[in-house]
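User: Run a structure prediction on this.
Assistant: Running it now.
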Amino acid sequence: MPRFRGIILDVDGTLIDSNDAHARSWAHALRQFGYTVAYEQVRQWIGMGGDHLLPKAAQLEKDSEEGKQIAKRYLEIFKADYLPHLKPLPGASALVEHLKRSNFRIAVGSSAEADVLEALLEITRVKDFIEETVSSKDVANSKPAPDVILVVLDRLQLSPGDVVMLGDTPFDIASATKAGVRTIALRSGGWTDADLCEALAIYDDPADLLAHYGQSPLVE
């Protein structure tokens, strides 16, 4: 029997192999505006929205004029140079379809921009299984703030204890925890088990979770 009634899916690094692409796009955009921030440093912030990343990378608010210009350039680079080449992670569509067949109410909760998220969901081929989609346009603060998770809970009309998050970064775990939601983590986003240690369980990728579904926290 299901332990939870609903599941909140992150997308980048969870369903699609895109975290490196986001980091390279941000580093490129920052460099064009005179901010030399190493890719390796930016990579550690992927999973946050631009409202958290820009202050860390350039001491800029996303809503400042320069912050808006950098964020716009980041999106242009990502969409032109990386988005057309992204691939779903192993088992992504199969896992989400299995969750739907198991009567989970499925929502997406992401820090991505709405149009980018739409494109990512097309690539992962999971749109038909999703009931609600929450992106950066729907919240004041992105992950690791709890706003995304709280909006999903409100739309699904479920309590925190009835829902689990599936994510790949410590920011997913922090966001969910602040909203009272537990997390199942995937290593596919590039984080270590030590980084993800507060999750209920950790799997390699969607295929690994699906292969061990019967012994996972998704089943009572």
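DSSP finds nine helices and six strands in the chain.
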